[in-house]
Design goal:
- Helix content is 35%, strand content 28%.
- By secondary structure, it is an alpha/beta fold.
- The chain has 2 domains: 2-82 and 137-215, Rossmann fold (3-Layer(aba) Sandwich), CATH 3.40.50.300; 220-262, no CATH class.
- The strands form 3 sheets. Strands 5-6-7-3-8-9 form a 6-stranded mixed β-sheet, sandwiched between helices. Strands 2-1-4 form a 3-stranded antiparallel β-sheet, with helices on one face. It has a 3-stranded antiparallel β-sheet with strand order 11-10-12, with helices on one face.
- Strand 8 and strand 9 (205-210) form a beta hairpin.
- Helix 2 packs across helix 3 and helix 4 (131-143) packs parallel to helix 5.
Length: 278
Amino acid sequence: MLEAIDLVKRYGSVQALDGFNLSVAAGEIVGLVGHNGAGKTTFVEIVSHLIRPDSGHVTIDGRPPSATSGRVGVAPQHIALYPSITVREHLELFGKLAGLRRAALQSAIDDLVVALRLNDFIDRHTAGLSGGQQRRTQAATALVHRPGLLLLDEPTAGADLETREAMLDVVKQRAGEGAAVVYTTHYLPELTELQATIAVARNGRVIARGTYEELVDGLPGEVRLLLDNGEELTVSTTDPAATLIDMLGRAEHPISAVDVRNPSLDDLYRSLAVSDAS
């Protein structure tokens, strides 16, 4: 579905992308993660045909972004809504721009009203909406025409719990229907819930790609025991379960609390940063 090969983009002395490669299959959710400045938003803007790369190329179903009108849905990182029109008018506008008419457009809007829980504010101007309501509205404009490729750039940034739950449910549903999804986020537990594969970006390129299990394999977790005498025992380990059993057997005092932490994507960031710098 989506293929990005050797993308390079510079802004003066700033190297935003430096040989960025990423492929996303139909029905796949790819969590694109990385610290600020890693190139995530620049990549989304290139695929959206908002900017052009200095070199490299992107294809969507074998065609360049300029030839895929109506096949891509984009929810940018920053809210980009018209404050003086209603949520319904936004969906009508974006649906018509993508080619939807009459019954098909109304059906698409009705579906999103339920899926993203828009009913309470569907006829309100977006200027008066809460941050979470605006996030849901912006996502709805990307989803209304059921695109084959979804680009969701930090779609739940600063969002409330209801917005986050609704967004993740819709993303999973659309991927289940065959859409390819690029989902950038700093909120890493979302990717586990989405069962996403992961691409880790750093300094304008993808430096690791795979499932969560593949990427954290071999990274240390942590086991912590709190004894009733106030003593705390902490061990870093690549096998938390076996380490816990061993620690329980050797503890000299009754145990008041146990904490087992498996390796996280933050651990992955740190390990990749070290290997990338060496």
